[in-house]
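Tip: read the tokens left to right.
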């Protein structure tokens, strides 16, 4: 099988040879034709002048055939130039009616010349009257030696030019083929390297055309693939770590109770139960993420009022606000359009974000749960008064198992590192957006935007309270 480089060389060479051959043939043909036409026009003008002189001297056309053969009367003032062999007579002389007076090899005296041919002839005038018409007749070219040599030299030069053009086409085809296929060869080598496990491959972008776009797409794919594989490896390690901690506690306490090291008390069994529940919660979180990744997350949509959903979620944290002495303020604009969401899933989103806010809000701090309508969307926001995040951490808080402080253990704060990732997946499944805004030392604000569900048949619901404080 020929390579694409060979095919391109053959294609360029074929195009070059065909183009040069057509140009050479056209130039050769036109050069020969125009040269013969030039000789014919020159001969016609010369012969017409000689015939005019002849008629002025003799007063008739008797014996004028010698002028065609280059043998004029001796008393002519200007003898004609050589016009080739004596049988070369591409003209006839007719009267004004097209009747042949002086014949050639094709027409005889008295023959009628077609009007179209007569119209191309040159009229010979004497005292204001037409005494004859010199009509050119197309016959095979029979020039003299120098004229034939000129045409042969011209043909040879054009042939050499065609050969040189073919060689140049071959060289250019080879160069262009190598230039065009170089990015393809680099992509092929990089692809083989990626298939063998080297995900760091990047190819140079050498142009701004389609091949350059292909190289950019490959580099982006390679970088995304490398990042994805790294993230998957990190996620696998994090999952193993998260599963190992509760499993170790469960197995340790169970073996200790079995071996009599620990008494089989209610407290020891409660530790085992709590760790098993924590393990079950982690597995459920991982399952939710896997369903979201596969696009199989079940969403049961219902039309609800955002204000009521926020109030129900806020009521779940009355005990925590009292225990940590945290102020939970509600700021709900009115009126708000309804939204079409899965109430259970959206409650899971809000509680995941609220749990994160409670973990990082110090005692005596404040959390603001707000809702407003912006650009045909309902924006629900949770603002805490925690330490906030740096810009490099803010971009990654929705990644799985990501922690802004890797030195702390998850069990210190009680989080699995999946809450915000799950929240983002659920919001996106609803056609919404999840974003965050923060400055170091000024807390973290997480915003949920969901499309409005308009109901033209139902009047607006009574305005929800614009603000409320829970302690």
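Filled-in amino acids:
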């Amino acid at each position: 099988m020929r390579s694409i480089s060979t095919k391109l060389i053959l294609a360029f060479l074929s195009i070059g040879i065909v183009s040069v051959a057509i140009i050479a043939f056209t130039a050769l043909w036109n050069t020969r034709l125009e040269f013969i036409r030039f000789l014919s026009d020159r001969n016609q003008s010369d012969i017409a002048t000689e015939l005019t002189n002849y008629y002025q001297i003799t007063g008739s056309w008797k014996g004028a055939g010698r002028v065609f053969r280059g043998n004029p009367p001796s008393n002519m003032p200007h003898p004609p130039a050589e016009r080739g062999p004596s049988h070369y007579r591409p003209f006839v002389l007719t009267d004004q009616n097209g009747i042949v007076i002086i014949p050639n090899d094709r027409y005889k005296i008295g023959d009628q010349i077609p009007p179209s041919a007569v119209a191309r002839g040159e009229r010979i005038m004497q005292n204001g009257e037409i005494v004859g018409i010199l009509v050119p007749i197309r016959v095979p070219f029979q020039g003299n030696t120098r004229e034939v040599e000129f045409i042969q030299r011209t043909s040879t030069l054009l042939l050499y030019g065609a050969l040189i053009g073919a060689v140049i086409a071959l060289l250019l085809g080879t160069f262009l083929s190598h230039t065009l296929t170089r990015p393809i060869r680099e992509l092929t080598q990089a692809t083989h390297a990626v298939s063998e496990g080297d995900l760091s491959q990047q190819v140079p972008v050498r142009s701004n055309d389609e091949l350059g776009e292909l190289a950019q797409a490959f580099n982006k794919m390679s970088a995304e693939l490398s990042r994805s594989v790294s993230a998957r490896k990190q996620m696998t390690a994090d999952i193993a770590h998260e599963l190992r901690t509760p499993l170790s506690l469960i197995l340790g306490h169970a073996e200790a109770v079995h071996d009599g090291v620990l008494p089989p008390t209610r407290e020891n069994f409660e530790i085992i139960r709590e760790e098993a529940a924590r393990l079950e919660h982690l597995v459920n979180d991982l399952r939710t993420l896997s369903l979201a990744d596969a696009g199989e997350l079940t969403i049961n949509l219902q039309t609800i009022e955002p204000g009521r959903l926020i109030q129900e979620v806020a009521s779940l944290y009355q005990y925590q606000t009292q225990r940590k002495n945290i102020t939970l303020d509600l700021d709900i604009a009115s009126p708000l359009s309804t939204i079409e969401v899965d109430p259970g899933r959206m409650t899971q989103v809000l509680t995941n974000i609220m749990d994160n806010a409670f973990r990082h809000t110090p005692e005596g701090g404040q959390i603001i749960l707000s809702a407003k309508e912006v650009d045909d969307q309902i924006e629900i926001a949770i603002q805490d008064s925690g330490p906030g995040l740096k810009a490099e951490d803010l971009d990654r808080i929705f990644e799985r198992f990501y922690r802004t402080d890797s030195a702390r253990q998850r069990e210190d704060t009680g989080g699995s590192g999946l809450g915000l990732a799950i929240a983002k997946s659920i919001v996106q499944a609803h056609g919404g957006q999840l974003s965050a805004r923060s400055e170091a030392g000024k807390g973290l604000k997480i915003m949920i935007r969901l499309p409005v569900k308009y109901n033209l048949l139902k009047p607006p619901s009574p305005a929800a309270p614009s603000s409320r404080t829970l302690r």
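Confidence is low (pLDDT under 50) at residues 75-88, 406-413, 455-468. The chain has twelve helices and twelve strands.
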